[in-house]
Structure formats: C-alpha cells, structure tokens
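hiii so um. not sure if this is the right channel but i have a protein structure encoded as tokens and i wanna go backwards to a sequence. like what aa goes where. can anyone help
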C-alpha cells in the first residue's frame, strides 16, 4: 500500500471526486499533538507553495521524519490509505510552507518583568511561524534556545541568530565579526555606522561566509553604501529615502535624534522629502548588488492609527502583562514614544506609508528580493499577529497574496541562505508546513488565531485560524498551543494583580 499510495493518475481522478471527498468521508488517524512520525500522510489538500505559483490541488503529501518525502496528486479512494497509521485529512484545507519571520527579537523579559520564551514561541507557532531570524537578543540564551529547538526538546520555531557587530575602528569591527563566527552566529547584524567601519565589517563577513543584516539609522552611511559593500539585507527602511534626499532632511532646529518622540514623529516626513528620480537610482543599485529588503511595515503601523494599535482584538487574551507594561508611553523605553501623538502625525505617516510601499513595490518590480519580518515586542506589536499584519501590509503595497506568501516563505528562506531546504512544499525539503481550513489567498486575515468574523446561516461565526503547524516534522495542534498561551497570560495577569 505504501508504494502506490499516490497514483500518477491521481490528479484527473481527483478533480472529479473532490465534491464527494469534501463531504467528509475521511478523518484524522493516529495524530497526536507534539509528535513526529516515521511516516505521515497529509491527504487531499490544496497546496499554496512558496514560489509564487498558483494554488494547486487536491494533492497528497507524505512526510517521513522531518522531511517531505513525496508531493503528488491526491488519491481520493476512501480506502487509499487504510494501512497507514498516521493520516491527517486535509479535505477542504490549504497547505502552505511554514511561515518564516525574518526579523524578530527573542525576549524573556520586558521592563524587567519575566516573560517566558515559551509565550513568544507558542504564539508565533499558533500563527503558523515555523522559523524566526533573531536579530538582537541575549545571545548566550538564544544560542541555548536554538540548540533546544533543533533537538526538538522545546516547542519553538527554528531559530536563526544574527549577532550584532560593532567597533570604534575598522579592525575592531573585523574582530567583532570573527567573534560572531566563533560563537556560532548564523549572520551579522549592524546598525548604521561610519563608512570605514561598515566596509570592514562587510568585508570580513564576506570572507567568513556570514550574511549581514543592516538596520540603518540616520547616519553617515545610507543604502548606497549598503549596496556597494554587499550587505545582504536592509531591515526596516531607514537609509533608503535618506540616500535620495537633497542634502539633509528638513528637521526643525529643536530636533534631537536621541529623543524618540522627535525621531519617530519626523521619520513620518522622510519619504516625502526623497527625490523620486534619485530614489529610483538607489533602488536600482540595491537590486543590482543583490541587497534584499525586509521592510517590517507592521512595526510602525501604530504611527498611522494609534487608537487602533492600542486596541487590537488579540490583546484581550494574548497580551502578556510584561509586554503590556512595556508598551506604555515612556521616554525611558525604545519604541514607547507614543505620548501626545496627533492627528497630524498620523496624516504624515499615512502619506509616508504610501510612498514607502510604492518604493518596496518598485524595488520588487526591478527584480529585488522582498522578505517579511515583524520586529514584534515594540510599539503595540504582538509576536505572530503582527507578522500576519505584515502580510496584509505587503498586499496593501501591491503584492498579490500568492506573492505575499512567497515573501514570507520562499523569499525569506533564500534570504537566510536556506532556499534549497526551507520555504517550499517540495520533495526533499524540511517538513515545515501549515494547514488552514480557509483560503488565505482570498483573505489573509484567515491566518489570524482569532480568524474572521463572518455570518453563516444567519449566525455570527469565526472562520479561519491556522489549524496545524508542522515544524521539523513535528505536528502541533494550534488550538493546544494557543490555549497554552492564554493560560500563560492569565496566570501572569493574576500574579501581577
Ligand atoms: Zn529589530
């Protein structure tokens, strides 16, 4: 039975049989939360792959251990898999590669209050995220967590760690990169810095085979240097419009970069001051040099609608009190600049987004690689749900939902240097997959744990939510993961009250 369980003639048969199968003849068999199997059959799904191709199905997928062993047309005979021990019935469901979040920070505390890693992991996985790229955390802890995730001894996404390199001289910069290599970093993170130091760090990273992610500030360097030095990714957006200004940005005389209230307010005026012709050249240079862009639109979303940001529906059950305390407006915390935010600030930021989104779209149209990340844990952004907001914002920027999925899977895998192992539903690839019982191409909101409020037979119902998250071949029921998260939150709230 095993050998011929996916028939070559499966596709044509299936198209005809789909209606009958959808009636719910099959059911899950031998599936337990948190287990990996020698052989697992996922049957009768529609696949949305991570390479920008149309959805196709019904298909069957066979997972062996932590690998995808076979992807083929579905065998819809009711008894097709009767001898299989572990069968997940995907009738009416959509199968995607596990989502990859390429800009996160692992937090085990906020404002000095403990917030367990488990909380962050489970909410990410409940939202379908199976890999994260950490670009700044407590590295010794993250290295230990990364190992535990690899072993499968904790419930966590795959962790890729980019460690910060800095220095006061080019040689110190080089030494920092060598240290990162020695400690086992998967890549290098830099913040905007002086030109000679950036050049040295980029050069040393190239020699040691490490990719470099750059979070620019308003610095001596900008996106032109990033391209020139062969940096791998632009994180966020600073440095791109800056490279297209005529001189400096038109800051008021009182502007102080270290005052975050100033910094985020006036950042909302930056894109409108970029010269379109110059910007076009900057984008072309980035594409030419192979710099990828992870815009993290979701990180700044509060700037264009603060009231909405403070009242997101998932906060009720999923916002940890440590994070809630961190979000409160304060000059003492990064990203807590939100006091006194005005209508005018939001109007500028809405325009800022329009120009920024067009730039990201133009960058992609020129052949640039766009990835997705959420940078959650700041400015009212919650792990996981903000990543799903990022997908919505990519759609708003003009990406077709199929391409949005690609940004969050195939493109992100490529950015990690894992394009031949992750981010696709493909034979031989790692078995990181998600299943959802609504079509996310129709509405990306179906991916949220809270689903979409809809009317069915005259009654209000929640539709959607990722149902199964499979990481490294281990099958997780997201209802269990999310219940755990709600319990962690409820317990922490009780302890804090
Ligand atoms: Zn960040």
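sure thing!! here u go:
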């Amino acid at each position: 039975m095993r050998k011929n369980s996916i028939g070559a003639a499966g596709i044509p048969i299936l198209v005809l049989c789909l209606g009958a199968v959808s009636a719910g003849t099959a059911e899950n068999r031998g599936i337990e939360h948190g287990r990996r199997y020698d052989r697992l059959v996922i049957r009768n799904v529609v696949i949305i792959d991570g390479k920008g191709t149309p959805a196709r199905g019904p298909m069957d997928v066979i997972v062996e251990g932590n690998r995808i062993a076979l992807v083929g047309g579905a065998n819809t005979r009711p008894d097709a898999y009767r001898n299989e021990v572990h069968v997940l019935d995907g009738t009416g469901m959509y199968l995607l590669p596990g989502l990859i979040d390429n800009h996160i920070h692992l937090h085990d505390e906020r404002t000095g209050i403990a917030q367990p890693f488990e909380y962050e992991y489970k909410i990410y996985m409940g939202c379908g995220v199976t890999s994260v790229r950490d670009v700044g955390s407590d590295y010794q802890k993250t290295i230990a967590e990364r190992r535990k995730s690899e072993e499968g001894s904790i419930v966590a996404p795959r962790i890729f760690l980019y460690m910060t390199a800095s220095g006061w001289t080019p040689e110190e910069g080089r030494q920092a990169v060598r240290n990162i290599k020695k400690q086992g970093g998967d890549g290098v993170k830099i913040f905007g810095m002086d030109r000679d130091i950036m050049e040295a760090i980029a050069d040393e990273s190239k020699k040691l085979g490490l990719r470099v992610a750059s979070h620019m500030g308003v610095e001596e360097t900008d996106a032109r240097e990033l391209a020139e030095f062969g940096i791998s990714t632009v994180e966020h957006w600073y440095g791109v419009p800056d490279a297209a200004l005529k001189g400096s940005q038109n800051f008021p005389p009182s502007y102080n970069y270290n005052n975050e209230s100033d910094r985020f307010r006036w950042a909302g005026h930056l894109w409108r001051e970029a010269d379109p012709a110059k910007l076009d050249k900057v984008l072309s240079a980035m594409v030419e040099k192979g710099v990828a862009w992870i815009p993290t639109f979701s990180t700044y979303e509060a700037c264009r609608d603060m009231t909405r940001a403070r009242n997101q529906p998932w906060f009720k059950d999923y916002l940890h009190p440590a994070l809630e305390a961190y979000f409160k407006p304060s000059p003492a915390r990064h990203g807590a600049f939100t006091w006194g935010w005005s209508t005018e600030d939001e109007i500028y930021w809405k325009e800022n987004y329009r120009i920024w989104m067009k730039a990201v779209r133009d960058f992609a149209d020129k052949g640039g690689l766009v990835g997705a990340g959420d940078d959650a844990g700041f400015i009212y952004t919650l792990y996981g749900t903000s990543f799903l907001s990022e997908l919505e914002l990519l759609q708003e920027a003009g990406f077709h939902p199929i391409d949005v999925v690609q940004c969050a899977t195939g493109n992100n895998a490529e950015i990690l240097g894992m394009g031949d192992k992750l981010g696709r539903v493909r034979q031989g690839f790692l078995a990181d997959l998600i299943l959802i019982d609504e079509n996310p191409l129709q509405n990306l909101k179906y991916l949220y744990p809270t689903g979409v409020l809809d009317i069915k037979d005259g009654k209000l119902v929640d539709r959607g939510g990722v149902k199964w998250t499979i990481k490294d071949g281990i099958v997780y029921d997201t209802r269990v993961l999310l219940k755990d998260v709600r319990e962690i939150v409820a317990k922490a709230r009780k302890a804090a009250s």
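oh and The longest helix spans residues 343-365.
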